[in-house]
Structure formats: C-alpha cells, structure tokens
Amino acid sequence: MTTHKGGCHCGTVTFELDAPADIKATRCNCSLCSMTGFVHVFATQDEFRITSGEENLTEYRFNTKTAKHLFCKICGVKSFYVPRSHPDGWSINLNCIAPDTIASVEFGDFDGANWEANIGKLREDT
Q1: Cα 50 from Cα 68, distance rounded (Å)
Q2: Which residue of 62, 70, 115, 124 lies most exposed, with the fewest beta carbons within 10 A?
Q3: What total of structural domains would you count in the chain?
Q4: Cα 7 to chain centroid, rounded
C-alpha cells in the first residue's frame, strides 16, 4: 500500500489515502458526477483520513439523502464524500489525488444514470 495525499483546489482541505500505487478508478455518468467531473476511487474508513480543513467542509444531500457530499467552503471542490453505494466507506476524487505516488490508473465505467439497475455490479467490482 502507498499513502497518497491530496486535497481541494485551494489546499484548505487535505487528505491521505492508503491504496495501491496502481489505482482502480470508476467513471460515473450520473447527474452529479457528470457535472463535477468526479472520478471515484473507493476506500474503507480505515484507508482514508482527512488531515486538515474538516471544519471548512459543507455538506449537500439529495434524492435518498444517503450520500454525504462534502465540498470545500472556500473553493467549492468535492475531493471526497461518503457515497450511497458504499455508506460505510469513502469515495475519493482521482482528480484530487497528487499524481506523484500514482504508478498507473485502470478505469472502469459505471452507469450511474441508471443507478438502481446497476448498483449490484458496482458493489461487486469495488
């Protein structure tokens, strides 16, 4: 495992992620991921740590109100959140991880626009 570091655009909110250097990432076509460019890297609670700026996060919930979307209050970037698909874990935005510890990225796709019909496959793959 490698400790990856990252954060929001302004650097107020930072995090660490313990994951392989060869990252598996998931692109999603749901309304929110499409609009924000979020690319998922899933992690357990033990693999992810907020290292600074937690007090500068604001929360947004919609639809079932299960997912806990967290945005930096200063720059508006969503570096990570608690996803509906993995409510006991985290999803980290690949675009917010510093690239210096990433050896490679393997992309998969999830049809989040049809979430209910496809969630079983996502949970199997992650």
Answers
A1: 15
A2: 124
A3: 1
A4: 11
